[in-house]
Amino acid sequence: MKKIAVIGSGTMGNGIAHVFAQNGFSVSLVDISEEALNKALATITKNLDRIMAKGNLTEEQKSQTLDRISTSTDLRQGVQEADLIVEAATENVDLKLKIFRDLDAFAKPEAILASNTSSISITKIASVTNRPDKVIGMHFMNPVPVMKLVEIIRGYSTSDEVTSQVMDMSLQLGKVPTECNDYPGFVANRILMPMINEAIYSLYEGVAGVEEIDTIMKLGMAHPMGPLQLADFIGLDVCLSILNVLHDGFGNPKYAPCPLLVNMVQAGHKGVKSGQGFYSWTHGTKELMVADRFKKKHFAQ
Q1: Residue 15 has what DSSP assignment?
Q2: What is the mean pLDDT of residues 107-131?
Q3: Across residues 89-109, what is the average pLDDT?
Q4: Given 139, 170, 197, 202, which residue is catalytic?
């Protein structure tokens, strides 16, 4: 497999395209917006420049990487030659099902269809195609060029051959593929999201403040960032969506999202992407600044 198509050019999509292109694959990056595609290429260029600054990439390698990426706003045209298609659209089940119906119609019969979903059932996604044995999950971590893990999710019908091919391809990207079965949240988010949710509950109930909660988890548990900062980084809307998938999928109240998280998302406070979450992200420095709303030591609402 040498030709890759990536659907969606946002944070995850451009990172996935970057990693494939840097490792010698021809990449077709597809999005509905020309503006989004141009922004993605600018981001990839900036990230390649960062790698060059560390001495891990030459100017020629950077140029070759960018030359391997083509862009398209036409889904049919963008995927028709691909051996592997990786969908990295918004974490919305209806959108993903529509995309996979179209991919099944437009892609060549032998093409593997992968989703970067972090929580939505691969079996459900596969069910809208005529090739469920060739549908699989490739859950990359953010930021994709840096993080080593790829969570490989086998749907109920995913074949051994396809799983082996995708595991081998992930190794070619310098990643560490780890296989799991298709249940709500898979492994990464089934464990991570309840922790984030519990941190939000600890804030909501006035147990401690934003900075205190994150400091305890960073220094006490050796986490590189605290759960509230990580939630802002992931996107509070994404965290809410994943918790809802877990809650609906297992029917267990322990996965019910904290009311504070629900209110924040409804108010448009989604973390880094919106400039406001548990921290303020609009001040233009790397210094962590707790959002004004949460500066009271014993916040509770």
Answers
A1: H
A2: 97
A3: 96
A4: 139
Is 189 one of the catalytic residues?
yes
pLDDT band, residue 285 (cuts 50/70/90): confident
Catalytic member of 9, 14, 121, 189: 189
278 contacts: CB under 8 Å, gap ≥ 6: 203, 210, 228, 229, 231, 232, 271, 290, 291, 294
Catalytic residue among 87, 91, 151, 211: 151
Residues 235 and 253: beta-carbon distance below 8 Å: no
CA distance 229 to 221: 15
φ, ψ at 7 (rounded to 5°): -100, 115
> Do 206 and 294 touch, CB atoms closer than 8 A?
no
What is the C-alpha to C-alpha distance for residues 227 and 25, in angstroms, rounded to an integer? 35
Show the tokens assigned to 112: 């593997």
Q: Is 151 a catalytic residue?
A: yes
Long-range contacts made by residues 189-193, C-beta under 8 angstroms, separation at least 24? 189/118, 189/119, 189/242, 189/246, 190/246, 193/239, 193/242, 193/243, 193/246, 193/255
pLDDT band at 287 (very low <50, low <70, confident <90, very high): confident
> Does position 119 have pLDDT exceeding 70, yes or no?
yes
Tokens of 256: 């019910």
Look at residue 69 and tell me whether its pLDDT is greater than 90.
yes
Catalytic annotation present for 118: yes
| pLDDT for res 299 | 54
Note the pLDDT of residue 297: 57
Is 23 designated active site? no
Q: Are 4 and 86 in contact (CB under 8 A)?
A: yes
Place of tokens 């032998």: 110
Cα–Cα distance measured from residue 289 to residue 237, given in angstroms and rounded to the nearest whole number: 20
